[in-house]
Amino acid sequence: MTRPLLIAFDGPAASGKGTLASVIAADYGLPFLDTGLLYRAAGHLAHVRHIDPVLAATLIDAETLADEALRGRDAGERASQVAAIPEVRAALFTYQQDFANQPAGAVLDGRDIGTVIAPHATVKLFVTAAPEVRAHRRWLQLVKLNPDLSEAEVLSDIRIRDERDSSRSSAPLEKATDALLLDTSDLGIEAAIATARSLVKSRL
Ligand code: CDP
Ligand code: CDP
């Protein structure tokens, strides 16, 4: 029997990993999980309910995941803060691992998919881009929700989050040694999708 197709996308904020992962999932008819949304939900619930983030991580449901507030600037920052707590990561581990190991195969995107959640993935891509490029992309998304937000503020947020995510002791953001690197700094969406498709194909 052939192994189910499991594809891992990791990388820093606004590198384009979620966009690419969802396209590749559609290409291969695979279920897709944006794991960042789980950390955003845990941080958001902890904040609005004034509860411990570890408890919040156990209370995530479909309604929480559909909350528009999870797409906001504060939710990204809160996610990164709670994601540094090992017990929060442990509370979210089994759900992610079960999703990765379902018989249908799967695509997941996050920070530690290729290193911790699915080290056995068939294909691993580490998607990155220059901080200024990522800040511009994220600013274009966030300014629709908050017209007063400056690009410099978004760049500062991104640098702080990259540093925290990369330096934490529990499942830091890092490229798996066997991951393929995709730098999207100079690639528009269509070119990035074409490159991701050929990188995935090269590993199958
Ligand atoms: O979309 P963006 O890359 O800005 O963020 P996200 O993927 O929604 O993740 C939000 C935060 O959750 C990240 O900054 C990480 O701190 C954390 N995260 C993580 O630690 N591990 C993951 N697998 C996914 C997200
Ligand atoms: O998931 P992640 O935070 O890494 O990024 P994303 O949500 O896939 O992409 C962030 C924004 O950048 C989206 O609006 C994408 O359409 C855009 N993007 C882009 O302009 N050029 C790329 N090569 C990839 C994404």
TrEMBL record:
Pfam families: Cytidylate_kin. GO terms for molecular function: ATP binding; CMP kinase activity; dCMP kinase activity. It is found in: Cytoplasm. Its EC number is 2.7.4.25. The keyword ATP-binding applies. GO terms for cellular component: cytoplasm. It catalyses: CMP + ATP = CDP + ADP; dCMP + ATP = dCDP + ADP. Keywords: ATP-binding, Cytoplasm, Kinase, Nucleotide-binding, Transferase. Residues 7-199 form the Cytidylate kinase domain. GO terms for biological process: pyrimidine nucleotide metabolic process. Its main location: cytoplasm. ATP binds at G11, P12, A13, A14, S15, G16, K17, G18, T19. InterPro entries: Cytidylate_kin (IPR003136), Cytidylate_kinase_dom (IPR011994), P-loop_NTPase (IPR027417). HAMAP family: Cytidyl_kinase_type1 (MF_00238). Belongs to the cytidylate kinase family. Type 1 subfamily. This is Cytidylate kinase. It comes from Asticcacaulis benevestitus DSM 16100 = ATCC BAA-896.
